Automatic annotation (TrEMBL):
Name recorded for this polypeptide: Uncharacterized protein
C-alpha cells in the first residue's frame, strides 16, 4: 500500500488505499490514549475529509498511501497518562520502518496489512530554534521521533474535526473516533510549502483538488482573509502564499501555466509524455488560473 516509490500519477492511487489508511489512522489513535485529541492529521488523507465526495459535483479524491501526523510535543512531554508510546504502537501492530539498507527509522512507522502490503505512518512536528526544518528529534524518554516541518505547528490552531467510523485492523471491530485534521487554509499552506520544497506531482494534485472542490474561489479567499485578520501565524500565511505565487500563479514573468506547479499537476492527472496534449495544457491553464484568481481575491481582501 505504501512507498517504494510513491506513485507519480493519480492512476497509482485508489479508494482501497485510502480506506486502508483510514483503518490505520483509527488503529493509531488507540495507541495515544487520552492524548489522541492532540494529534493533527495532515498530508494526502486530509482531502477525504475537506472535500467529501458528492458526485458529480465533487469527485472522490485520488487517495493516499500513507498517514502523516503532527504531534504536539509539549502536551506529550507533560502527559503522564500513558505507557511507553513505542510500546503502545508495537502492541497495535506498528513497527519502525526499515529501509532497503536495514536502517530503522524512529519517525516513520509502518503497519503491515499483509505480507506484501503496509501503510506508512510519519510523525511530524513544527520546526523551531531547537529543531530546524528537516531535523529529526526523539521525543523525551521515547523510542519515537518526529521530523521537523516548517510551519507544521499551525495545525494545532487551524484544524477541523469530524467523527468517522472505520473497522480496526486485526478484526478489532468498528471504531468510532473523532479525528482532527488541517483545515482548508492550513492544508493549502502546508501543501504549497511541501511542493515548493520537493516538487512532487502528488502535492500539486492534492493542493489543486482542495482548492477546486472545498468551495468556490471567494470561499477559499475568505478563509485566508479571516486568518490574516486573526493575527495568528502570519509568517506561515505569507510563506504559503509566496509559494503559491512562485510555483503556480501568473505574474512571475512567465506564462503561469508553464510554471512547475501547473505542469506537475497535469502530469499527476495524465502522466508524462513527449507531446503537450490539449487535455494536459487545459489542466495546466486551469490550475494556474484558479490559483491566480484566489491570490487576487486575498490581496483585495487584505489591502
Amino acid at each position: 500500500m505504501a512507498l517504494a516509490p510513491k506513485p507519480k500519477t493519480a492512476a497509482g492511487y485508489s479508494l482501497e488505499h485510502a480506506d486502508a489508511c483510514e483503518q490505520v489512522l483509527v488503529t493509531l489513535l488507540g495507541a495515544f490514549g487520552g492524548l489522541k485529541s492532540t494529534l493533527r492529521l495532515v498530508g494526502g488523507l486530509v482531502p477525504r475529509y475537506l472535500t467529501p465526495q458528492m458526485p458529480p459535483d465533487v469527485p472522490p479524491h485520488f487517495g493516499t498511501s500513507d498517514v502523516d501526523i503532527v504531534l504536539n510535543l509539549q502536551v506529550i512531554a507533560e502527559g503522564n497518562g500513558y505507557a511507553s508510546l513505542a510500546q503502545q504502537l508495537k502492541d497495535r501492530g506498528f513497527e519502525p520502518f526499515e529501509d532497503d539498507n536495514g536502517w530503522k527509522s524512529a519517525w516513520r512507522w509502518m503497519r503491515k496489512l499483509s505480507e506484501k502490503e503496509y501503510v506508512l505512518v510519519e510523525f511530524l512536528r513544527g520546526a523551531d530554534a531547537q529543531c530546524r526544518a528537516f531535523d529529526i528529534k526523539l521525543l523525551d524518554g521515547e523510542a519515537v521521533s518526529a521530523l521537523a516541518i516548517e510551519h507544521a505547528e499551525i495545525v494545532h490552531d487551524w484544524f477541523d474535526s469530524r467523527e468517522i467510523k472505520a473497522p480496526l485492523l486485526d478484526e478489532g471491530g468498528i471504531s468510532i473516533e473523532v479525528i482532527r485534521y488541517a483545515d482548508v487554509v492550513a492544508f493549502i499552506i502546508l501543501k504549497a510549502l511541501a511542493f515548493d520544497s520537493r516538487g512532487e506531482p502528488k502535492d500539486a494534485g492534492d493542493l489543486l483538488h482542495v482548492m477546486r472542490y472545498a468551495g468556490p474561489p471567494d470561499y477559499i479567499a475568505a478563509k485566508f482573509i479571516d486568518k490574516f485578520l486573526s493575527g495568528q501565524h502570519r509568517p506561515a500565511l505569507l510563506a504559503g502564499l509566496d509559494a503559491l505565487q512562485k510555483k503556480f500563479a501568473e505574474g512571475s514573468g512567465v506564462e503561469g501555466y508553464e510554471l512547475t506547479g501547473p505542469v506537475k499537476y497535469a502530469q499527476f492527472l495524465f502522466g508524462r509524455g513527449e507531446e503537450q496534449t490539449d487535455e494536459r495544457v487545459a489542466a495546466q491553464r486551469y490550475a494556474s488560473g484558479l490559483v491566480t484568481h484566489v491570490l487576487e481575491l486575498i490581496r483585495e481582501g487584505t489591502a
